[in-house]
Specification:
Layout lengths: L2 E4 L3 H12 L7 E4 L3 H11 L2 E3 L11 E4 L3 H8 L10 E4 L6 H7 L6 E6 L8 E6 L6 H11 L3 E5 L5 H10 L1 H18 L4 H4 L1
Parallel strand pairs: 1-2, 1-4, 2-3, 4-5, 5-6, 7-8
Antiparallel strand pairs: 6-7
Length: about 200
Amino acid sequence: MKITFIGGGNMAAAILGGLARDGFDAGGVNIVEPLAAAREQLAQRFGAGVAGSVGELTAVGDVIVLAVKPQQMREALKPLAGRLQQQVVLSIAAGLRVADLSRWLGGYTRIVRCMPNTPALIGAGITAACAPANLAAEGRAAVERILQAIGKVVWVDDEGQLDAVTAVSGSGPAYVFYFMEALRDAATALGLSPATAA
């Protein structure tokens, strides 16, 4: 399987790191990142191929991971419109619906939308994903292989359910961490050492 990441930010780096830990061959990965310093760092860290734009790639691979900020997505997809045939497009961008991505890709429909949560950055996340009916079993398996690099994967049948999952699993860990900090602070206020309280 060949993977192209469009964007090399934190979540893309988390997925790349997880794939590397799982033994995925970096020779099968390309990262499109417009910032030269970030490109160099990604190439050194992961040993993957890097490019400044999609146009620099000779092939886009089997799975294209969309890992740019939502406000940059439309522009980032322009070079891909009309170029895709059987690839699976995997979007990790928050808040962008499949219909919008499809329109920006010239009507392409093999798009999986997913929402990883913050613990994915340390390989302990839960990612909810929604796949179209036209995605074959091997496409779904490829998506799972990629997303399992950052934790567990759950599938939802309706894209609207991703919003509910995001509200619970996206924000939930922050509340748990806040509660844990409050317990630690209370323990130190009661006289325990910081090491014991932690």
